[in-house]
Each structure stands twice: as structure tokens, then as C-alpha cells.
Amino acid sequence: MKTLIEPFRIKMVESIRQTTEKERIEILKKADYNPFCIKAEDILIDFLTDSGTGAMSDRQWAAMMTGDESYAGSKSFFRFEKAVQNITGFTHIIPTHQGRAAERILFSVAVKEGDKLPSNTHFDTTRANIEFNKAEAVDMVIPEGKIPTLEHPFKGNMDLDRLSDFLEKYHENVPIGMITITNNSGGGQPVSMENIRETGRLLHKYEIPFFIDACRFAENAYFIKLREPGYQSKNVLEIAQEIFSYADGCTMSAKKDAMVNIGGFLAMNDDTMAMNARNLLILTEGFPSYGGLAGRDLDALAVGLEEVLHEDYLKYRLRTAEYMGERLTEAGIDIIRPTGGHAVYIDAKAFYPNIPASQFPGQVLCAELYRKGGIRGVEIGSVMFGRKNPNTGEEIPAEMELVRLAFPRRVYTQSHFDFAIESIIETYGEREKAKGLKITWEPPFLRHFTAKFGLVD
Ligand code: F0G
After folding, report:
1. How far apart are CA 248 and CA 246, in angstroms?
2. Is the CB of 49 under 6 A from ligand 1?
3. What's the pLDDT at 382?
4. For labeling, which of 9, 123, 162, 405 is most exposed (least CB within 10 Å)?
5. Pocket test for ligand 1, best of 96, 100, 215, 257 (most atoms within 8 A of CB)
6. Hey, where are the domains in the chain?
7. Pick from 344, 119, 314, 142: nearest CA to 223
């Protein structure tokens, strides 16, 4: 059969509200052209993030009813621990309320001022938590990973030559090496097993612990099955187990590939580091058997980790992004290619060649997608990553002007995607009419969340 169907049926529904274009123009004005400032009830299709926005299964909801809310040593914790250990094999499993809490604890116990942490690409919260500890986050993805339309099966790979040189020079200042799977900031691109293995080998040469940012580990494992020679006959669980076997620990936002609305964990083999991490956990997150979560959250997470490895699910998941990518590419719209696991990234610079970076083409595209179809995406360009020249105040643009449409798990159907595709293509047809934006107010940092914009005359 050619038609690939959603591998689930719907048991509970949530209404979404249609608005008129006229209403949306007003809503946009009131939100100062910043999608973060639009109320969710005014959004028709929300592609802002795939984080914590997924639909839980009937089995996950059933597991929540069995949650044990004991403060210490709850049954839920042991079910959670077993599920994580089955996949990762790590000795110490420490629950946290989400990914960045795991990052904060890890870097607080393992990183000191002046240290340097290499990765393919650190996610924003990872980078921010490293910098908060006065250390340096160093990105070294392969050069192919930075060219949007260049096809490569593993565009998230670490540049191993660069890593090798870097370690030779700085190994004494490198407390941890990391790799993000899939590489969210680089387009949701996967990392190959060979690259993960070699990254581990290079770090271990200097006895540096290797940690995986594992948010989307299942999507990455399925890409390996599809694309890397030798893995076609392995199941995704075996592939995931092999990935983690090369590492000494991981951080995880369970809001992604553990299919829950809140949760995360930090895992590792080192006893001393784990003891320090647990002590800090008690200080800020909670007792080590719940780490800021309810017992029922841990149960839902344990079931989610099992469900995410179902191949029917992963096939549908990866095909969703690929399908949208194909349709947009056919229509002449440039995207990061090939599509990654959780999102499609539109190249807004190519979409609006007449709008300069100083007028934020990515932000314009976000506003236009909302006006046309009630769709919400996120700008990943000069609003998010642009910097100001400290002397002149002039804007220094980001390397790329992208709009990410990230897909909540098991939430939208084929027709939602067809509708979104049609809206994007129609927006492209009206590209000549789009006006640039200027910032009218901005906060001192992380401006993309709250900045206000106005139309350029
Ligand atoms: N690492 C990666 C690769 C992520 O994508 C995220 C979150 C985190 C860590 C932090 O996890 O949100 O649970 O604290 N990414 C979300 C996104 C927010 O929209 O891409 P968290």
C-alpha cells in the first residue's frame, strides 16, 4: 500500500477554533507580530514546538492511575528507572522536571570556570547552562550540516577532525564532551552510529566522560536503521542500546521522545558524580525518587519510552516531516534538506529575497503564516540569534534566517498537514506583498520570547 496512515485512532478530541483572516490581522497587531504573544486558543495549528505538546496514549493515561505518590521509594520510580535502564544501560537514573533541569545539575557538579564543552551543536538551554557556569560551549558539527539545501544522510555528525585537534589542545579543560541527537539547532538532523562511537572513542582517549543530549534518541535510532549500512535488520531498541553503550551518561527532556507533557532525567555511570547530582537535586528539584515530578508522571514516562520505539510510530513520524518537505520543495520553497525527525525548517531568506536580515524575514514569515492559515511556527534567525554591535548598536544578523515548524507527537492528522502545506504555498504566492518588520521594544536577553515588532513602512 502506498498510503501511510497514522498508527493510532482517536479516543478523545480537543476542538480547535477557526478564525477569519480579518480577525487574525487584528490579533497579530495586538501581539506586536510576535507569535509567542498570541493566545493558544487563537491558533489553528500549533507548530511552535514538539516539546511537551504530544498526545499521551490510553496506556499512558492508564499508567497514570497507578502512580504511587509516596515521597520516597515509590513504585513509580522503580518502573521509571527500569524503563530508562532498559534503553540506556546507565547505573544512576535521576528524574528531573525537564531537560534543562538535568543540564543545570550536570553542569553544576561537573563544570568549572574556564572549561570548554564540545558538542555537534548545543541546544540553547544547554549552552545557556554551560555559560551560566562560566564555561564555554563549543559547536563543531560537520561543515555539510550548515548548508541548508545540501543532502547528507547524517548532517548532525560531529566534525571528528576538529574534535580531535580540539581535544589535543584543550583536553585538560574539557570536563565533559556531548552530542545532541537529533541535532535540533541544526535542523533536527541525525548523527550516525559510527560518529557517536568515534566521538566516544576520542573523548575516552583523554578519559573525558561522554554525555548524550538524548531528547530525540528514538528518531535518531530510526534514522540509523534507515540510512546506516548494517543496521537494517536490527530493531530500534537494539540500536538505541548501542548508541548509549558508547556514552557515560545522558541528559533527557522527556517532553520529546518519552511522549509526556512534562519530565526529564539525568543518567550516568559515575558513582561520585551521581552522588553530587542527587545532593543538588534534593536542594532544588526534590527527593531522588521523584525529582520534581509526580509519581504518575514517572509512570507515563516509562510507558512513553516503550511506545516511542514502535517502528510503525517512527515510520509515520519521520514520514510526516518528509512528506511536508517534499510538497514544499515541489512548490519551489527552500527548506533544510533532507528533513529531520521532528520539524521542517523553512529558509526565510530564500522565501523573501527582498526582505533584508535587518527586517527579520523569519519573523515576517511567522506572522504571514499566522495571517494566512492560523499556523504558528518559530523564528530561528536574527531575532533569536542576532547580536548588537556593542559600539554602534547596529544589528549583526544570524548565519541563517529559518522558520521551524515543529510537530507535536500524535496530535495532527494528514489533513492538518495538507492544510498547513496549502497555507504555506499560498503565503509563498503572496510573498511580493509581505512587509518587513522592525523591533519596537526588546528585553535585555532572550528577546525572541517577548520582543515587540511593527511593520516597516
Ligand atoms: N536539548 C534539546 C536538544 C532540546 O531540543 C531541548 C528543548 C532541551 C535540551 C531542553 O529541554 O525544554 O525539557 O528543558 N527543546 C524545546 C524545543 C524547547 O522547542 O526545541 P526542556
Report:
1. 7
2. yes
3. 93
4. 9
5. 215
6. 21-50+311-455, 58-307
7. 314
3.40.50.300, 3.10.280.10, 3.90.1170.50, 3.90.1150.10: CATH of 21-50+311-455: 3.90.1150.10
Name every residue whose Cβ is closer than 8 Å to that of residue 220 and which is 6 or more positions away in sequence.
156, 181, 182, 190, 191, 243, 341
Ligand 1 pocket residue status of 121, Cβ below 6 Å: no
Residue nearest to atom 19 of ligand 1 (CA): 49
User: What confidence tier does 186 reach under pLDDT thresholds 50, 70, 90?
Assistant: confident
Does the beta carbon of 250 lie inside 6 Å of ligand 1?
Answer: no
> Is the shortest distance between the CB of 182 and ligand 1 below 6 Å?
no
Average pLDDT over residues 131-137: 94
- C-beta of 129 in contact with ligand 1 (< 6 A): no
Residue of minimum CA distance from atom 16 in ligand 1: 51
Q: Give the model's confidence band at 2: pLDDT under 50 very low, under 70 low, under 90 confident, else very high.
A: confident
Which amino acid residue places its CA nearest to atom 21 of ligand 1? 99
pLDDT mean over 330-353: 97
Contact 219, 254 (CB under 8 A): no
Architecture of domain 58-307: 3-Layer(aba) Sandwich (3.40)
- Ligand 1 atom having least distance to the Cα of 98: 13
Is the pLDDT score of 445 beyond 80? no
Which residue's C-alpha cell is 539547532? Answer: 185
